[in-house]
Every structure is written in structure tokens, then in C-alpha cells.
Amino acid sequence: MRFPLYGAAVALGFAAATISVTNAAVISICGREDAGVCTAFPGSGILSQFSVGPIAVGDFTLTLASGTTQPTLPPPGLLFSDNIVVGGPASAGHTLDVFITASGLTNPLGVLNFISGLTENTIVGGWTETLSTFVSATNALFGGTPLSSATFNAPGAVVLNTNANTGAGPYSVTAQYHLVSTGAGAANATANILAAPVPGPIAGAGLPGLIAACGALIAFARRRRSRYMPA
What is the pLDDT of residue 99? Predict the structure, then answer.
């Protein structure tokens, strides 16, 4: 289901009132060219906020890949992630996948409404990029049960939601960035995953404070993006 962006902001804010965060999850990141083996970059699986780059992945340069999860990321967030990639002429005809996983999540649990905010900030050179999100009840890295997906060949944004079961925990959520290159180009995207209990938010839950909580997540994203925008 697609939400208008303003309506999504309100929906995400409602979720903040119903979720408390007591767990410390960790971020892991991997990258691969042409669907090869995806091995976690050094430093993965240690901190709740982690980034890599610049680093070469085949014919691409991963300028920045970063992820933030609980408790550094405030509720209702589970994962905030960035991916900025540059490729020269040699990247033509190749693909790049970057996976960013938040694992070790233990709160909230059960059947949740997972809300995926997928944004293509910049994309040039005729590239296309597919942003996808996943949840894993087995706490797996770099995959799981599909939640939402959107493909971009120009700047844009969507907010999508899907119900899924976390199991007893711990569980993980993953954002996948899949790039298809036609030659020299660049892309800058973000993928955020939030969760609200099902059947939904509690009525009368203090709207101004809830919108402010969602606004804090948006401001956090903008600060991160502004530091690494490709030329």
C-alpha cells in the first residue's frame, strides 16, 4: 500500500507513541558486483551506527554506505540507511548490490506493520536503482522475507507498508540497494524501516509530539545526506 508522504509522516509519528526501545542492535554491511558473494565489510556487527567508504567494489566506488539502528536511532525507527555510489565507464553492463542489515532487534515483537521509506535523492548517467526491504525472524544478515520494493531512474520517493511477523526475536531488517549501470554515473539513495504494532496506532496519542518524533528522523536523514552528496 502506498501512502502520500505527508500522511506517512503522521502514520510514522503515531507509531512512536506505542514503541519503547530497550535493545541494542548492530549494523552489518556488504557489497557485491554482478550477484557475486556478499561478504560483510570489516567492522560490521559491532555498533548500532556503522559506515564504510570510500571503497572499491568491482567496477564501482562505494563512496558511502551507512546504517543506524536502535538505540542510536530513536523510535519508531528500526533502520536508517544511506548508499552513495559512483561508477566510471567500466561499470557499464554491470550491477552492484549493497545490503545494510540491523540485527539483534528484540523490541517490538510480533505481527507488525513495517513501514519502508524509499528515496532516490540523486541518480545520473542512465542508471536504475531498486530499493528493497526485508525482515528475518531468524536474525539473518543481508536478506529475509521481502517487505517492500521500488525502482527509480530519476529522483523520487515512496512510503510503503507491509505486515509481517518478527517471531520471538531477536530478528533483523535489511535494506538492499540494487544498481544497474549503463556507463559513468552516480546514485545517492536512502532506505528507512520503521515498525508500528498491528492493528494500528492508538487513537488520541498526542499528535504534535508524534509528528515531532517523525520530524527528528527526517532531519537526521537530511544531515547525513548533505555531507556526502555526489557531484
Answer: 98
d(CA 103, CA 156): 28
Nearest alpha-carbon partner for 136 in 106, 103, 88, 107: 103
Residues lower than pLDDT 50 in the chain: 1-22, 200-213, 226-231
Residue 141 φ/ψ region, left for φ over 0, alpha for ψ in the -120 to 50 degree band, beta for the rest:
beta
**Average pLDDT for the chain:** 83
Bridge partners, residue 109, by sequence: none
**Collapsing DSSP states into helix, strand and coil, what is residue 217?**
helix
The helix (H) or strand (E) run that includes residue 99 is strand 95-105
- Looking at residue 142, what DSSP letter applies? S
Taken in order of first residue, the domains within the chain and their CATH numbers are: 2-227 (2.60.120)
110, 56, 41, 117: which is closest to 87 by C-alpha? 56
Phi, psi dihedral angles at 124 (to 5 degrees): -135, 165
Cα dist from 147 to 28, 31, 159, 192, whole Å:
19, 20, 12, 12
